[in-house]
Amino acid sequence: MREPPYPIELKPYGRALVELARRRADVLCLSGDLTKQTEVDLFQAEFGERFIHGGMAEANMMGMAGALARCGFVPFVHTFGVFATRRPYDQIANAIAYPNLPVRIIGFMPGVSTPGGPSHQATDDVALMRALPNMTVVDVADAIETRQVPALVADVPGPVYVRLKRGEIPVIFDSDHVLRLDRASVVVAGTDVALFASGMMLAAALAASRALGACGVSVSVINVPVIKPLDTATVLAAASAASVRLVVTAENHSIIGGLGSAVAETMAEAGVGRPLRRVGLRDTFAEGALDAFYLFERYGLSTAAIVETIWTALGCSGVPPSVPVVAAGGGEYSPV
Amino acid sequence: MRVMSETLDPRELALRIRLRAVRMVAPQGFGYLGQALSSAEQVAAVFGAARPGVDRIVCSPGHYIIGPFAAAAELGLVSEGDVSGYGQNGSVFEAIGTERSPVVDYTCGSLGQGLSAALGFALADRFHGSDARIFAMVSDGELEEGQVWEAALFAAHHRLDRLVVLLDANNSQVDGPVDSITTLEPIADKWSAFGWRVFDIDGHDVAALSAALSAASAERGRPSVLVCRTSTRHGLDCLPPDADGHFIKLPPSLAAAAVAELTGKLEALRA
Fold first, then answer.
1. What is the tens place of the pLDDT at every residue in B31-67?
2. For testing the chain A interface, which of B100, B107, B128, B147 should be mutated: the one with the most A CBs within 10 Å?
3. Quick check: B154 and A66 CB within 8 A?
4. pTM, full prediction
5. ipTM over 0.90
6. What structural domains and CATH numbers belong to chain A?
């Protein structure tokens, strides 16, 4: 795994979808008036005949995608995550999830990664999609995982929701890292704390683990790219290890209904009695701002917030270790 | 998917749909009989026009599925025994159409979604180079749902001319007459303004329905909609004047009167 600042890639998803479409004539691309923003201008340029402008009409777009899937196509539907889930929820439920159709819903701009305010911030999309039977829910961490998504989800028999960071995508994993839909993976081994992270919070979790490790607190980091179906075996193994005194989840999402809830449910049903702390939006809408950096700090999604959460929960004395943000130059990314 | 074992004169089929629907609803003593009464001629026309295994039938409002079920029973597409389970525990002939519903290609109890599915079918047919037609039954109450208009815009923009909507304008929704809840008129002008070919017809006139479907089939470059003016009481004179068109109560005495009335009309038609 790389160290921050991470190099960035542009349009890893868009390129990978084009590669898939070159091999698969059944792949269709639908866009809800956010074609460049969701990287599928690349698809439109090469496969214009298989590209469908849904316009600003998400309900209709989901309904059409369901029917296209019934006819043997594999529609990839693109918009921002917030519009992909809240607006057409009933359509996704009835026209896609209930009939268990292979529609791939790709929602960009997760959580507070956009400063565009609550109307644009997908802070409950994972919870909404996770509640739907048959739905697979994916929240990947970096460009190496992102570029594997189109081919990996193409043949899932039912619907899939994928949340993807928009714009500059960090490269965190080595290029041979393999994304699997049935596996969470321990990316840092530790003894005292099991820290589960999904999506954009992986980079912050890794930074928090490093900072705490330097102070003698050993934190394992488990990357959870698939929230549903959850790899409960890996979750339970990490959470119930004899030395583990604390379990923490970190998600760029509400603490209600997402990764934190999924891990909590899994632990409770298995009778794993460990203190749990959930890092995420604490049952609040966020706000519009100038940049996402500010929002990650303000809403407790920073590396420092993870460190402080762990430090406090473990009852450590003194002040928690400081975690100066690694400066990122142009074309680089560091977690907040 | 559908194999027609029998073809029927649309007037007779519409009458038999009404009679079958009465018998399907009678065991419960209430149900979506009004939908069958207002749409019987439209259902008969669709089942007469749709080419089995080629064309698709969408029943957008799941509450209307009683009509296609009744037609399928009359045409021998499903058994009378099967359809007698309509609305009963464990039956796939659920009273509000679902994914399990046989007979049609798409239906949904959450209203206003069927036209989008019809568009998806039309796009798929276009990708496949097929000239198959899509017959989409839609109700006037559904026009209150924004999704219908999203779909109407899309269909016209993409010139989905293999698509024909049969809009059952029965002026009935749960809370009362549609025009007392939301003004939809001028319905025909709205669809016309959205770029559709519009036929504003008496939805109980089988000749008008047949002519409009033929003209819609010949239409190129735009989708068609048949605005079918109907009544949820049509063809069943014994219904009390205050019958709730959305959900008609049918106690045993009224059910017996309805069966007698419709059986008599059927015999008269065949005479």
1. 999 999 999 999 999 999 999 999 999 999 999 999 9
2. B147
3. no
4. 0.95
5. yes
6. 9-170 (3.40.50.970), 185-314 (3.40.50.920)
